[in-house]
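Quick one from the shared queue. A colleague (R.T.) flagged Transporter as missing a structural entry in our internal table.

Convert sequence to structure tokens.
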Amino acid sequence: MKAPLSLLSSLLGAVLALAPVSSAWACATCACGDPTLMSMGTEQPFSGRLRFSSTLRGWGHTVGQDNVDALRLREARMDVAVAYAPLPWLFLSATLPLQAREVRSVSLARERGWGVGDVELTAKAFLYQDRAFSADHLFSVLVGVKLPTAPKLRLEDGTLMDLDTQLGSGSVDPLAGIAYQHFRGSWSFLASATGFLPTRGILGYRAGASVRTTMAAQYQPAERWALRLGLDGRIEAASDIDGEKEENGGGVIGYASPDVLFSPRMDLVVAAGVRVPFFNRLRGRVAPTPIAMLSVAYDL
């Protein structure tokens, strides 16, 4: 029996030696050399990386004065995204939102809308990393565009629903940003800024130009879970309709963003958290709610 077993072992070794090797077949941690659990959009690159994700958010705000002209908006949103790295330094991604929205006025009149929102396409290029494998420092730039893929929602008589009920802006909105990431043992850090320059869209509406920022620190004491704390900010100009500025909106708002990340199995990352508004300097009367978030990301 010894000779057949030896021959079988030799043949098996030869097959494995001749088999094609692709980093895309390996686990994501093995391929990029870093075991840090990362949510969608913050992962380390390697050629052939393919990642799918789904993110659920629940949020809302109230605009205007209570018992006078208050308008309450509530939305549940699921973003379905895919990201692919055709090159070790380039990530291409697409995000499709599915939304359900309700708007209620002070008179208790309601409008509801649901369906597909505006698709966002981005390309992220890593311009610098201190080493190709298990990098400690990453610097990247981002360019993209939001496309008017959401349908125009109408009432039964064919008239368009209010702007607040619409799921998309009806505009083509370019965006660009920069990001820096640092990995140091059980800790990782992120700083990013992304600018948006909306164009005019549905019903003459144009959202104000804005910059969104993130500063976050993450501690990962074990292989399967991590804690993340971020500060998210938004600076935006006032929106307008046919050149007339809206009274409510525009200004500065900041959120405290604690998250828990968990990996129940290889290449699967689940994140849950909340975005709590702690600094509100928006013009007029805008009262945002906390934003609840749950996401799942999987590498193939």
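The mean pLDDT is 88.
The chain has one domain: 2-299.
Added to the table.
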